[in-house]
Amino acid sequence: MNPRPSIAFAKFAAPQTAANRKGVVFVLSADDGGLSGAARVYDPGNTLERAFPVAEFTGKFAGVVEILAPEGTSLDRLVAIGAGKASGLDETAWLKLGGTIAASLRKATDVAVVLDLVGAVTGGKDAANLAAGILLRSYSFDKYKTRKDKDDARADPKKPIKVTIHTADPAGAKKAFAEVEAVVDGVLLARDLVNEPANILGPVEFAAQAKELEALGVKVEILAEKEMKKLGMGSLLGVAQGSPRGARMAVMQWNGGKPKDSPVAFVGKGVTFDTGGNSMKPASGMEDMKGDMGGAAAVTGLMHALAARKAKANVVGIIGLVENAVDGHAQRPGDIVTSMSGQTIEVLNTDAEGRLVLADALWYCNDRFQPKFMVNLATLTGAIMVALGLHYAGLFSNNDELAERLTAAGQATQERLWRMPLGAEYDKLIDSKNADMKNIGGRYGGAIIAAQFLQRFVKDTPWAHLDIAGTAMGSPSSEINQSWGSGFGVRLLDRLVRDHYES
Ligand code: BES
Ligand code: MN
Ligand code: ZN
Prior knowledge:
Layout: E1 6-10, H1 15-20, E2 24-30, H2 37-40, H3 47-54, E3 64-68, E4 77-84, H4 91-103, E5 110-114, H5 124-138, E6 162-166, H6 170-195, H7 203-211, E7 219-223, H8 225-231, H9 234-240, E8 248-255, E9 264-274, H10 294-308, E10 314-324, E11 335-338, E12 344-347, H11 354-369, E13 374-378, H12 383-388, E14 393-397, H13 400-413, E15 417-419, H14 424-427, E16 437-438, H15 446-455, E17 463-467, H16 490-500
Parallel strand pairs: 1-6, 2-4, 2-5, 5-6, 9-10, 9-13, 12-16, 13-17, 14-15
Antiparallel strand pairs: 3-4, 7-8, 8-10, 11-12, 14-17
The structure holds ligand BES, manganese (II) ion (MN) and zinc ion.
Ligand BES is lined by residues 274, 288, 292, 349, 351-354, 379-383, 440, 446, 469.
C-alpha cells in the first residue's frame, strides 16, 4: 500500500545539508556524461560514479544504478537514472524519467531528486513533468486491500513518501506543476473510475462522481430516465432496460473561454458493465467489462483536468451511463428502437450496445450545443484490438484537420492514435430491411462498421471517434502506468485543447 507521494520543489541543497540527509537521493546522468556538480555533492566518496562501468551504466535513457549507504554520507541509497541524450528531452521523456524514479522508490520515506544534467538546461516545466511521472507511476488501485504487506518495514505505510525535487528554478517548477498536477489528477480519476468494480459503480454512482466536479466550477446536469424518455432517447434507454439500476446522462460544462465562443465537445460511452445482454458474452474474461465505461471515465477525467487548471476554453463533456444487463425486461435481438434523431434502429445484437448509447448522446450534444467539433471516446469493439493491438487507439473522423490535430496530440503525449477509414461502401453494410439501420454489419471490418453507425448521428459537424477498447484497460503497463485502468485519453485531449482551442 503506497499512498500518493507528496511533492515539493527546492533549490539545490548546500553540501553539508545534502551529505547529512537521511533517505534516498536520485541523480541524473546523460549519455556518457557522468554526474553534474549538484549531483556530486551527494557522492563525496565518488562511489556512485565508480560503480558506473562495473554496472555497465552508460547513462542510457531510463537505465538505473544504485548503491547502498554511500561512503561519506548518511544516505540510505544513492541512485543514478540515465537520461539518454541530454538535449531535447521532451514532455513524455520527463514523465518517463519520473516514472523510472517512482519504480525505484520502494519503501523509502524521504526522497530527494537532483534535477541537474550535464549538457542540458532543465527548466521548471521539466521538473513539473518529472513530478507528474512520479505520481502517475506511483498510482495503484488498492483501496480494497485490507491487509498490510508483510514485508513492509515502514512504521506507517499510510504515510506518504516525501519527494523533494531540487532544481535551479523551484518557483517556476511549482507554478508549472500546478497545471500539470491538474492533468495528473484527471488521469488518476479516470483510472479510479475504470478500476472500480461494477457492483460499486453503476450509472447512478458514476453520475454522482460527475456531479462532484461542481466543486471545481464545472456546471453539471444529470438527466434521469424520465427526462431522457421525454427527449426521445429510445436507443440509449433500450440498452438500459434490462438492468434495475437505471440510466443517467451527465452533461458537464466548463466555461473558461470567451462567453460567446461555441464549445468543443467530448462524448463518452459509459456502460458500467456489459454482459452483452440477451446476446450474452462468454463467461471467460467478462469481468473486464467493468471497464466498459472507459470513454466516460476519460471525459470525466478530462473535465476535471480542464477545470482544475482553469483552461481558457468552453468545453462540454457528455457521458451516457447504462448497465447492459439481462433481466426479463431486457431488449431482444430483432427489437426496433427509435433514437432521438428520429432514425430507427434494428437491434440485431444486444452486445453492440455502445453505439446505441452514443447515438443518442452524440445527437443530443450536437442538437443542444452546436459545438465546434465532437470527439467521442468508447471501448467500442473487440475488432479494433484485432486491427491495432493494444498500443494505438483507432481514430475515425469526417474531418482531416481534427484528425491531424488529434494524431499530433497523440504523438506528443504518447497516447497514440491510428486513423482508420470511413466510406459509403462500409456505411451501406448497416442498412436494414426492417428499419433505417441495424446495429451490426457483416463479418469483417467490425470497428469501421461501428464508426459508420456513429457517423449517422453527427450530421456535418466535425467529429472524431476514438475506439479505445485496447488502450483504456488491460493495455501493457508502461513507465507511467502500472494499473489495469490506464486513464487513456485524458492527457491526449487536454493536449488537444491546450494546443488549439484556448484563447
Ligand atoms: N464493450 C464491447 C467491446 C469490447 C470488447 C471492449 C473487449 C473491450 C474489450 C462492445 O460492447 C462489444 O461487445 N462489441 C462487440 C460488437 C459486436 C457484437 C458487433 C464486439 O466487439 O464483439
Ligand atoms: Mn457489448
Ligand atoms: Zn460494450
